[in-house]
Amino acid sequence: MGGLRRSPESSRLVQQPVSSEIDSLIVALLAAEKRITDGVGWKSIGRADYSSSTLRVVCPSEPKAVLRLVMQVQRRNLPQKASFNLLLGATRIFSLDVEPRRWHKNRKTLGTVGVTHWHTWPCEEAEPDDRTMSHKEWFWEFLQRSRTTFTGRYRKPPYEPEQLRLL
Amino acid sequence: MVGPTPEQIKKSLCELTFVEADKYGFEIVLPQIYSNGETVVVTAQPEGDGFFVHDSGMGAMALEAAGVSTSPRLHEEIGKGVRAYGCQFSQFRVYKQCSVADVAQTAAVVGCASRLVADFAFQTETRPMFDFRRQVVETLLETIGADRVRENEEVIARSGTRYQVSAIVLDTKLVKPAAYVEAVSNHQAVARKFRALYDMMHTPGIAETPRFSVFNDVQAGISTGDVALLKDVSETVGFRERNTLSQITGSVH
Prior knowledge:
The complex is a heterodimer.
Chain A: H1 19-31, E1 34-36, E2 50-57, E3 67-74, E4 82-88, E5 91-98, E6 104-105, E7 112-113, E8 117-120, E9 127-128, H2 135-145, E10 148-150
Parallel strand pairs in A: 1-10
Antiparallel strand pairs in A: 2-3, 3-4, 4-5, 5-8, 6-7, 8-9
Chain B: H1 6-15, E1 18-22, E2 25-33, E3 39-47, E4 50-54, H2 58-65, H3 72-84, E5 88-90, E6 93-99, H4 103-119, H5 132-144, E7 149-156, E8 162-170, E9 177-184, H6 187-201, E10 211-216, H7 224-233, E11 235-239, H8 246-252
Parallel strand pairs in B: 9-10, 10-11
Antiparallel strand pairs in B: 1-2, 2-3, 3-4, 4-6, 5-6, 7-8, 8-9
Helix pairs in contact in B: 2-4, 3-4, 6-7
């Protein structure tokens, strides 16, 4: 097995571990080095409003984990909305919402965040970030924060003309 | 109990609703949220004598952000649900046309249908957190030893087809295969794995070597019928928590 620190009970992973095992595994996965070798490819066909790109994420110390980075952009609306979601299976474990259309409602406190924000596992609270950056800059920021190295080719999102000035 | 009055609750609810004119028409923020915490927002665009109200694909974005692959079949199922709200679903966008007088009501309905799209994430088969084949292979590596296990080995069967077998366990002299092991992660994989095992079963030289189908015994939709099929071409082993695959290790030692 790899170098993740987990309790002996969790040394053998199962399809759907109990919640405490998932928690400790996710914390370990977030702290571990990860890598993406795929290039960014935007899928727009059949989507009137948005494009998405899914990249496989490999965690060498936990190769059984099915990790993906799902990126989305709204092509038409201003301000530029984009999201970056690191998923373990179907579970969001780390994410960034850039320029949300309105507010994010925190489930725990019911407070609202209306600017760019980060979610870290268990993703119940949004951490605001009031910086303004290009998609590429947010992408690199996301990779850095999630301890992921990227060796693929980055491609700009296919924004429609009114958004070009934001690139 | 001293509590809010109906008027106060209504006022609070109304404060959650927000309408702003933009270049397309009106952006309408509704007192609803997607399960990811995002507020439901719809756009009302003037069109002819009425309005074209849509969700800008926000429901589908929330669905895809939850890791759901939107296949044509799922698209069709979503469409059925959306139509139950009197709306349409096309190009991953929920929309409904209405008269000027019906904009508010239509916005509420489109918002509900958009949430329905996002909530399909809870109805579709959950994508596993762990790669099933790797779980099986790593268990074999732990119990039998890395020197005797080969991953993803290619086998050319009688039909001429090349198969990547999940794992081959070598004999103790590390000379020839002692068992072929296929990891069957879900119902969809059964037909493909059956074909491979059937083909290998009729391949001279390897037909006598034991074949094992290790199937996912946890929430994978593998039916008793699937297992019966796999049994025709291999020995089946259900894999779940803390399974040591002793059936395989016992037969290759």
